[in-house]
Amino acid sequence: MLGESFIGDDPVALVLGDNIFYGSGMTKQLADSSDPDGGIVFAYRVNNPTDYGVVEFDSNFNALSIEEKPKLPKSNYAVPGLYFYDNNVIEISKNLKPSYRGEYEITDVNKHYLQMGKLKVNVLDRGTAWLDTGSFSSLMAASQFIEVIEQRQGLKVGCIEEVAYLNGFINDNQMQFLADKYAKSGYGDYLADLLINK
């Protein structure tokens, strides 16, 4: 609801701020999900589904049920904080009632699409890492994971300037401006190297 004027008539992607996703196949999965007819929740296989919201789905990846931290889970697939919705999500959100915590719950949005028979599931593959950084220990583990990847490859994870540049959203001059802006840090050096090694 807060983003209604920005969203306009477009579909919506929602990523919870304490989630990090990393994997080589994600670019295609996200692109394939970007204009849904209804809603799409992502699913990630976990060993301990009772700790998560769990989605059950059929062979056509239609969601059959979603439960929050079930005692008897119907699947081993957790729902991480990554969702795509058609533009109807704005009106659906406006008609939600706050939960007992006084908050609007994304689970209620998903249940609305589920009841309409318009909730699909996109399963993240085995090579994808899903990191939840909602606690001090999980934030530390995520930081160490990203540090290892970046040191080994010499490439940044989640560098929005790099993504924008490689996709043609910003040009050489704009990239140079950003590299100069961060020139006193290793981040600025990384952006400058992208221009040199394009």
Short description, anyone?
The radius of gyration is 19 Å and the shape is globular.
Question: Can you characterise this structure?
Answer:
The chain has 198 residues and is α+β, with helices and mostly antiparallel strands. The chain is built from eight helices and nine strands. It has helices at residues 4-7, 26-33, 89-94, 106-115, 136-153, 160-166, 172-181, 186-196; strands spanning 12-15, 19-22, 39-45, 53-57, 63-68, 77-78, 82-85, 119-123, 129-132. Helix 7 runs antiparallel to helix 8.
Major β-sheet, in short?
5 strands, mixed
As residue ranges, the low-confidence spans are none
The helical percent reads: 25-40%
Mean pLDDT: 93
Q: What's the Cα radius of gyration? A: 19 Å
What fraction strand? 15-25%
Overall shape: globular
Described by its quaternary structure, the protein is: single chain
What's the N-to-C terminus distance? 39 Å
Structural class: alpha+beta
Helix-strand sequence = HEEHEEEEEHHEEHHHH
What's the total number of strands?
9
- Count of discrete alpha- or pi-helical segments spanning 4 or more residues: 8
